[in-house]
Write the structure tokens for this entry.
Amino acid sequence: MTSVSPRRRLIGGSIGTFVEWYDFLIYGLSAPVLAAHFFPESSATAGIMSTFAIYAVAYLARPIGGAYFGRIGDRLGRIRTLAIIVLLMGTATTALGLLPTYATVGLAAPALLLVCRVAQGFSAGGETSGAAAYIVESAPPRHRALWISICVAGSWLPILVAAGLILCLRAGLGDAAYASWGWRIPFLAGGLLAVVGLWLRSRLDDPEEFVAARRAAPVRGVIRTVLVEHWRAIIAVMLIVAVQGVGAYLLLSYMYSYLVTVAGLGPSAALVSNAIGVTAMAVILVPCGLLADRVGRKPCMFAGAVWTGVISWPALVLASQGSVAAAIGGQVLIGAGVALFSAGGFVTMAELFSTSVRFTGHAIGYNVGYAIFGGTTPLIASALVAATGMAAAPAFYVLAIAILGIIVVSRLPETKGVRLRDGGVADDAVDAVPATQPVVR
């Protein structure tokens, strides 16, 4: 088989990630209607919080899925593993679109919802780490931050497609029909998209960087090696995730419900504003990736953490004003900080590990971090609003996490220019090490 060109790997990997995260993110956009169908009607607030609780519980499956798929990916290959991941996600998403409701089967309905969501979380546990390893190992050394930023932007943009589909369904079917049965269509469409993702990934191959590393020094006991020899990098990844996870999932999974239930926007207006805010975050991420390749990873992360912390309160106050323009403005302000931090953060997390254990190490740190910080963001944010009665109360949490991020970034190594085979070691420190003899620290 002829080797696939690096640019084709970037395009194929990014589109596959787009498909995977469409399936995962549609749950957040559907939270209000899911709450109505899968939980008792006694309290709308209790229903939405229960829906977000399932959202958070599903993140507990992500570290397990990450470790499972990471081990396979480091031993058997990136592409084969990524194909399995998108197949599992598509199956779970299709099943979610076919579930019976609480009115039909009672308490079995939220239980089945939980099962599907956990399966999605298990699949998602391997996606970002596998895609990050694949893209970074395929990228030209001087453009790794840019390439992985393009891939991450592809994981954020599905919300635009999902929001557009929901708006079209509401307009075409009417709100009543959408709320009754039309909400299932986006989930079933996700299953079809997964077939496309599977086909795309079957036409790619593993990067030469990974193939050479596995041939030179295959690692046995990958999980044990990572936990014993790379635990510092795992902790660093968990803490990096805190900043970008809280900020990103505030927009990706909480703001739609926030704009409807707190700011008082209609569902269509909330969807449009949220889609524009997330799209802006994805677009800003790409030039920030260029910047991270030029000035380094740490300056971008530091500036992003400072921006996110400073802007969180005024941005949420603005978003809660009840107009579409204000909602867009508040979300774009938050998204700019997340994009700047993520442009340095995503590539750093991949560069901290050597090629032979990159998938596993990244997956464990990334998914444990998201289980603690990202998955709980909607639940914590909605609880803060309910407890304080303040529309901008989630800003307290964002500010605290941003301060943590500033401290973490100050203690991180600069990974711009590292040799991937070694991970976290600058080129001038490993010039004497042959490329076929990786240093696993």
In short: Residues 422 and 440 are 6 Å apart (CA to CA).
